[in-house]
Design goal:
4 helices; mainly alpha; about 55% helix; about 100 residues; Four Helix Bundle (Hemerythrin (Met), subunit A)
Length: about 100
């Protein structure tokens, strides 16, 4: 696994996807599908402190329900809710030193 000078893994593909979603270049349904697939297919052990941030966003993306009439659970997220979660993850990754 490639580590940067801080000893953190290269997660540029995740950061790029999150950034594109927050800039609205990618819609919420596409973000959900792509992000879930990326993290499910991740073969590296990302470890602390990065993995918990990515895992929390994975759980958020899993709670996203695109169709309003299908949102029946209190934890279901709409587009804005998923965007808020992505912004939180972006902030947490920036706090770790990712840009």
């Amino acid at each position: 696994m490639t580590l940067d000078d801080r000893g953190l893994p290269d997660i540029n593909t995740y950061i790029d996807l999150i950034d594109r979603f927050l800039r609205r270049s990618v819609g919420a349904p596409d973000f959900q599908l792509t992000y879930l697939r990326m993290l499910k297919n991740e073969r590296r052990i990302l470890g602390e402190p990065v993995f918990p941030v990515l895992q929390e966003l994975f759980e958020d993306a899993d709670r996203y329900v695109a169709e309003p009439r299908l949102r029946t659970g209190t934890g279901d997220l709409d587009d804005d809710g998923l965007m808020s979660c992505a912004a939180r993850a972006q902030g947490a990754l920036r706090d770790l030193g990712y840009t």
